[in-house]
Design brief:
OB fold (Dihydrolipoamide Acetyltransferase, E2P), six-stranded mixed beta sheet
Length: about 375
């Protein structure tokens, strides 16, 4: 596949403050790239640099193999959907959607054809004569998306488009955007701080922190093989459990010793062919800590510990215990009966565990 967006060694400063540091990203046509990270990590600034709304200090940005360094935003063949919708309040939905086409001098016939096509896709045919003030938040966001879709650009840019919507509507709009991406085969760059949005929408995720890229990968790679402790902790809800432990080499295996809350030590056996330092942090997802006997797992290990908190969540029940100084969340089946204060067996699937260096935070 040919590249649609290539970002090379991009740096961006605001005065003495560095907000983007040596950013390198490449996506193919048809990819859905999600930039995710906490507030202030630089993801919206990077999107604005792609759009040409912010000038980069060094590096290059190519769209469809064309260097955009000196190209004005209007000439980059992009369409942007903002968090604030950015609709004209005095214009009807129809005029909001067709305004850009009118400015570019497209014929009325083409404008109407595209309007009908997009309004059907977004299910807003009945809203065309209304003004933005008469619409709900979700309807306004659909109109903003419609205005972008009629452009048929090389690249769609979304700047936290769902953050103003309530939870139910966010899920609906997420599904709508995913369907649009599939139907259109469009190339999209999407900014969010919501890691669930990132996981559900993306074909490729870029995790950012303090202006640096922490990891680039598919949702599966980011979730199951986080590059460092930050990615492990940030991506996933509930977050990955991060447990301090010590290791001891024994023949072909490692004994992993975890200090429990009562001062006792639980020993696990890591059977994979790994090279582990003495001090480690084990990263293990809640779904890989279950009730004992729930599954036949190849590298299952049992730790007996007290139940501190029980959180029913419909299809699952989250059970919190303490291993050493760390609160650890396990994911049990909803029908499993667990009482706070009871001592039970937790089954850890070490086959799915990640290991991190406590000093560098990097994956081992």
């Amino acid at each position: 596949m040919s590249s649609i967006l290539n970002i090379k060694n991009v740096n961006k400063n605001f005065g003495k403050i560095s907000v983007l540091n040596d950013i390198n990203i490449n996506i193919d046509k048809g990819d859905f790239l999600v930039l995710v990270g906490p507030s202030g990590c630089g993801k919206s600034t990077l999107l604005n640099c792609i759009a040409g709304l912010e000038k980069i200090n060094s590096g290059d940005i190519f769209i469809d193999n064309k260097n955009m360094s000196d190209i004005a935003p209007k000439d980059r063949d992009i369409a942007m959907v903002f968090q604030s919708y950015a609709l004209y309040p005095t214009m009807t939905v129809e005029k909001n959607i067709t305004f850009g086409m009118k400015v570019r001098g497209l014929s009325d016939e083409i404008q109407q054809k595209k309007l009908i096509e997009v309004s059907r896709q977004l299910q807003i045919e009945t809203l065309l004569k209304r003004k933005p003030g008469q619409l709900s938040g979700g309807q306004r966001q659909r109109v903003a998306m419609g205005r972008a879709l009629v452009r048929n650009p090389k690249l769609f840019l979304f700047d936290e488009p769902l953050s103003n919507l309530d939870a139910k509507l966010r899920v609906e709009m997420r599904t709508e955007i995913k369907r649009l991406h599939y139907d259109l085969g469009a190339s999209m760059v999407y900014v969010t701080h919501d890691q669930i949005e990132a996981m559900t929408l993306a074909t490729k995720i870029v995790v950012m922190k303090n202006g640096f890229i922490q990891q680039i990968g598919t949702p599966e790679e980011i979730y199951n093989h986080p590059a460092n402790i930050f990615v492990a902790d940030f991506m996933g809800s509930p977050a990955m459990n991060l447990i301090h432990a010590q290791t001891k080499k024994e023949k072909d295996n490692y004994k992993i010793n975890i200090k429990l809350a009562n001062g006792e030590v639980a020993s696990l056996t890591e059977k994979r062919k790994l090279k582990l330092p003495k001090d480690i942090i084990i990263g293990i997802r809640p779904e890989n800590i279950t009730e004992n006997g729930s599954k036949n797992k190849q590298n299952a290990q049992v730790i007996t510990s007290n139940v501190d908190i029980v959180e029913p969540a419909g299809s699952d029940t989250y059970v919190v215990t303490k291993l050493g100084e760390t609160e650890v969340t396990a994911r049990f089946h909803s029908e499993t009966k667990v009482k706070i204060g009871s001592k039970i067996d937790f089954l850890l699937d070490l086959e799915k565990a990640s290991y991190f260096n406590p000093s560098s935070g990097k994956r081992i």
